[in-house]
Amino acid sequence: MKLETELYIHIPFCERKCSYCDFLSFNAAPQIREDYVKALIAELEAVSEECRDRTVISIFFGGGTPSMLHEAFIVRIMNTIREHFDIAANAEITIECNPASALGHKLAAYKKAGINRLSIGLQSADNAELRMLGRIHTFEDFLKTFQAARMEGFSNINIDLINCFPLQSINTWKKTLKTVLMLKPEHVSIYNLIVEPGTPFYEMQEKGILMMPSEEEQAKIDEYTVSCMKRSGFRRYEFSNWAKPGYECRHNTGYWTGVQYIGTGLGASSYFNGCRWKNTSDIAEYLKADIEGSPEEALRQIRKDTVRLDKKERMEEFMYLGLRCTDGISGMAFLGKFGMHIEEVYGEQLERFIGLGLMENEDGQYRLTDRGIEVSNVILSEFLLPD
Fold first, then answer.
1. 3-state secondary structure string, 275-336?
2. How far apart are CA 97 and CA 67, in angstroms?
3. pTM for the structure as a whole
4. Residue 141's Cα: distance from chain center in Å?
5. Contact 256/2 with Cβ under 8 angstroms?
6. pLDDT, tens digit, for every residue of 15-49?
7. Nearest one of 176, 148, 155, 325 to 247, comparing CA atoms
8. How high is the pLDDT of residue 229?
């Protein structure tokens, strides 16, 4: 039986950067986009040699804005993957879309190419908030895209939302969430805004002019989110992700539960055969790699900071990533992976957080409580082991 692997494809192109975005993304001339797709296909062909004993169970086109590419490029990439990889019959295949660039004919091409899940970046249902966030679409653009996707037969759609951002109130958030839930998506991702260095929001924050909601208002927003999503039949299976039963994102769940994956494209990260690495973030370096001439050498050139994880690092990741999921982590799984009882390694932390009501243990399954999720950054940092 072949091992299971996930495949990520990074499309770094965007019309323009949003005010909060620190992702690896930029605008580029049509020729650069074409050259990039050619290099990406060559990388995929080279990577397939490393995956001969693997079955790909999920594929994820992320960005950037993958839907900004001409649909013919997406079709070419999918054809390459099908030709060179063993794809599971029930593989989940996702593409991220921006409502301003995901036109009806593109959705039809995606469907025909085998893509079966869409992730649409709405962020807010309020046009004034969208402008403030730097988004290039309107809510009406989103509605057209969502309706077109349903008409094309997409039955697994995620909607991305952001909350707790500048000038947002509990009232505007209620409007956004209620509007989105009326559309009956299968999955909703809800992210609290984090002001990252190098973004316009960060510069405004440094100048003291970024009007963020108060802590009290943010708490109200989070409390309303939890109650509203639960009432609407969604299950929170990870801190920022809510799904109807059976529609949890299998690709991202794989990240949190230790499924190995290979990232292709500019700046993409990988975890494969016990190693982590990240592709170069330099577009010139990526494009000049002679993957067709010498695949192994070219892959070595574009892959940076390769690290083989030791036992300590693997235990830390097991805890840090696994506890992001609301199902938590299994003591038996820890024993099976590391040959040690979880209490031998983390007994002090587990006992302390359970005592504080921030974690719970049900038959050896450890998970954060709702209170624990609210302070998860502090809790998760406690599972880093001393050198």
1. EEEEECCCHHHHHHCCCCCCHHHHHHHHEEEEEECCHHHHHHHHHHHHCCECCCEEHHHHHH
2. 5
3. 0.94
4. 23
5. no
6. 887 887 878 787 889 999 999 999 999 999 999 99
7. 155
8. 97
What residues contact residue 347 under an 8 Å CB cut-off, 6+ apart? none
pLDDT at 55: 97
Torsion angle of alpha carbons 106, 95, 225, 324, nearest 10°?
180
Q: What is the pLDDT of residue 244?
A: 98
| Residue type present at position 275 | C
Other CB atoms closer than 10 Å to residue 309's CB: what's the count? 14
The C-alpha atoms of residue 190 and residue 177 are separated, in whole angstroms, by 10
CA distances to 214, 275, 296, 310 from 219, in Å: 9, 39, 51, 39
Site of tokens 């510069």? 203
* 374 Cα distance to chain centroid: 20
The CB-side HSE value for 360 (13 A sphere, CA atoms) comes to 9
- 348 token code pair: 């002090």
Residue 235 burial by Cβ neighbours in a 10 Å radius (0-12, 13-18, 19+): middle
Q: Give the C-alpha separation, 227 to 209, whole Å.
A: 32
